[in-house]
Amino acid sequence: MTIREQLEQWEKEYLSPYATLSMESKGRERDEEQCDIRPVFQRDRDRILHCKSFRRLKDKTQVFLTPEGDHYRTRLTHTLEVSQNARTIAKALRMNEDLVEAIALGHDLGHTPFGHAGERALDRICPYGFEHNVQSVRTVEKLEKNGQGLNLTVEVRDGILNHQTSGNPATLEGKIVKFSDKIAYIHHDMDDAIRGGILTEKDVPKEIGDVIGYTTGARLDHFIHDIVTTSAETGDIRMSEPVAEAMQKLRQFMFERVYKNPEAKSEEGKAEQLMETLYRHYLKHIDVLPAEMLRMIDEGEPRERIVCDYVGAMTDRFAIGIYEELYIPKSWHG
User: Fold this and answer.
1) Model-level pTM?
2) Can you tell me the distance from the alpha carbon of 39 to that of 21, in angstroms, rounded to the nearest whole number?
3) Is 227 within 8 Å of 89 (Cβ atoms)?
4) Rounded to an integer, what distance in angstroms lies between the CA atom of residue 86 and that of residue 104?
5) Which of 95, 118, 139, 155 has its CA 20 to 30 A from that of 109?
6) Which 3 state secondary structure label does DSSP give 28?
7) Is the dihedral of CA 187, 188, 192, 195 positive or negative?
8) DSSP-derived secondary structure for 5-59
9) Which residues fall within 8 angstroms of residue 22, CB to CB, at 6 or more apart?
């Protein structure tokens, strides 16, 4: 018996009857020989962790555009916090930690530079639209590894696609990540907003604080404990009604005070214009795109879709650098 088979047997004996077992995965789009050490979801986690789009997350905006300070979240630190929340919940409920970690690490791979401002710009200008969850799946299926994709399992791709509020994941592990994503961004976006002087803890309405706490740490702890205790032995992942209601009120509070705050979002119009400008530029100069992307056009992919892939994959810094190179005059040295 290989190490992988021993681990699969351990899952069968130890994990909850509601957990998704590695040995029962629906498999990959392209059949592969199994690893002798790692079950399929652990292998998917490793592939995501080592791919280029994961590394680019370190220089992509979470909420605050290129903030002056070392402690504000990026898309990468957000992803790691989602992963940690999800693993804590999964471990407590005896769900498949490898599966939740793979979904969590991959859920934002398709995010644009400049956060949701970049997403809005591409959705507006590209005739095929742009949704970061759909783009994350496209990234792992088609764009990574020079057009080969990562060939992930059905369960991981489903969880990535359905991590948003409107999504309906097919596995309970996917549902854990869906909750963990919201918990993470509400927690750390408020923490960053307090650090940036946009909010103080005293601003949190009493009706919310009385239910889930008056510090970011207390709220994070409360959310996770509530999901664990409410979901245990139910065959579902859920929050209690009072906590779910308080979370919705807190999310609405964050939209009013942070996500739509003119001070916090003052540069987003410029970011959107930059993204649209780069999109139009590369549509006119398609020949400068990387060879693997030109090959995808030759194979029938629409030019607009490929340009959207290219611009959407950029980091904040790279997008700004390209824009400056193309459109900002340089000093003449003679």
Assistant:
1) 0.96
2) 9
3) yes
4) 7
5) 95
6) strand
7) positive
8) HHHHHHHHHHS-TTSPPGGG---BSS--PPPSSS-HHHHHHHHHHTSHHHHHGGG
9) 7, 8, 11, 39, 40, 41, 42, 96, 98, 99
Cα 333 to chain centroid, rounded:
44
> Tokens 């979801």 appear where?
41
Helix axes 172-195, 154-161, angle to 10 degrees: 40
| Length of the chain as a residue count | 334
Q: What is the DSSP string of 212-244?
A: H-SSHHHHHHHHHHHHHHHHTTTTS----HHHH
| Distance from C-alpha of 334 to C-alpha of 332, rounded to nearest angstrom | 6
- Residue by residue, DSSP assigns 121-167 as HHHHHSTT---HHHHHHHIIIIIHHHHT----BHHHHHHHHT-STT-
- Report angle CA 200, 206, 211 to the nearest 5 degrees: 110
Q: How far apart are CA 66 and CA 72, in angstroms?
A: 9
Q: Tokens 């057009």: give the residue.
A: 147
- Alpha-carbon distance of 209 to 198, in angstroms, equals 18
74: β partners: 61
126 touches 69 (CB < 8 A)? no
Percent of the chain at pLDDT > 70 equals 98
- Count of CA atoms in the C-beta half-sphere (13 A) of 79: 28
What are the residues facing 28 on neighbouring strands? 153
- Tracing tokens 């629409």 back to the chain, one arrives at 302
Average pLDDT of every residue of the chain: 94
Give kind and range of the element (H or E) at residue 46. helix 40-49
pLDDT tens digits, one per residue of 83-114: 999 999 999 999 999 999 999 999 999 999 99
Q: Say whether 26 sits in a helix, a strand or coil.
A: coil
CB 170 within 8 A of CB 40: no
CA distance 79 to 73: 10
